Amino acid sequence: MIGIHLASVFVTDQERAKDFYTRVLGFELRQDMDLGPGGRWLTVGNPGQEASSGVPAVELLLEPAGHPAVGPYQEALVADGIPATSFSVDDVEAEHARLVDLGVTFIQPPTAMGPVTTAVLDDTCGNLIQLAQMNG
Amino acid sequence: MPDIYDALAAPARRAILDALAERADQTLFELVNRLSTDPATALTRQAVSQHLQVLEEAGLVERRRQGRYVLHTLTPEPLRAIARRWLTDPQEQS
Questions:
Q1: For residue A61, what is the enclosing H or E element?
Q2: How far apart are CA A127 and CA A125, in angstroms?
Q3: Contacts of A111 in chain B (CB under 8 A)
Q4: Between chains, do A113 and B34 touch, taking CB under 8 Å as contact?
Q5: B3: exposed, middle or buried (C-beta count within 10 Å: 0-12, 13-18, 19+)?
Q6: Superfamily for A6-134?
Q7: Distance to chain A for B91, nearest Cα, Å
Q8: Which of A20, A41, A119, A127 could serve as a FRET partner for A65 with CA atoms 20 to 30 Å apart?
Q9: ipTM (interface pTM)
Q10: What is the band of A37 on the pLDDT scale with cuts at 50, 70, 90?
């Protein structure tokens, strides 16, 4: 069996990303290892999620944006409003309200898009992130 | 500058104006997603981008950069000019 255990987003500042993805978004810190000049192996996971019965727990790697291709890549995606990735939420209106209170910038408020209601926020580390709530 | 009537002639561009009427300051991504909710109006990102350029040149859409984002807003003033041209009460003109 094959399973996704790691997904990644490039972040322009790992320290700020650690704070944003844990304290603000609400993920749990999984790993924070110094890799020397290459930065840190920094991952977060879903709150309360453990690996179970052969299914790996998913971790999100907050990867240093050191490669010269990353800047133009992020810039082009962000200009067109394209999220680097998408997180699921139970109640996108409630999450939007909670995060706006914490000072998070949304470039798209919760909007029904067919089977999902989505919102798009700025992670302050070079990315747009989509929040998605399945309708019905 | 493209003629406003040419800009409005394409059904796809009218659908884009409908989507833009929902909210100001939309990114290309948001606009493409709104159009995709109906198979009749779904378009590729490249197609939407090209139609937006025609609409912008006709004065119906404003495209502006805010920080790192590019946002699009419906600017219906040219449509008011059309209304004024033909919908004026003849008694007002005398």
A1: strand A59-64
A2: 6
A3: 23, 30, 33-34
A4: yes
A5: exposed
A6: 2,3-Dihydroxybiphenyl 1,2-Dioxygenase, domain 1 (3.10.180.10)
A7: 45
A8: A119
A9: 0.90
A10: confident
A118 part of contact set with chain B, CB < 8 Å? yes
Which residue among B28, B37, B69 sits closest to A113, beta carbon to beta carbon?
A: B37
Using DSSP's 3-state secondary structure scheme, residue B43 falls into: coil
Is any Cβ of chain B less than 8 angstroms from the Cβ of A114? yes
Q: How would you classify the pairing of strands A116-122 and A106-113?
A: antiparallel
Query: Per residue in A93-102, is it b (16+ CB within 10 Å) or e — as a string?
Result: eebbeebeee
Give tens-digit pLDDT for B48-90: 999 999 999 999 999 999 999 999 999 999 999 888 888 877 6
Domain chopping of chain A, boundaries:
6-134
* Mean pLDDT (chain B, rounded): 93
> In Å, how far are A27, B2, B60 from B17, measured between CA atoms?
39, 16, 8
Structural domains in chain B, CATH included, are 4-89 (1.10.10.10)
Q: Note the helical H segments in B39-89.
A: 45-57, 77-86
3-state secondary structure of B35: helix
DSSP-assigned states of every residue in A93-134: HHHHHHHHHTT--EEEEEEEETTEEEEEEE-SSS-EEEEEEE
| Kind and range of the H or E run holding B22 | none
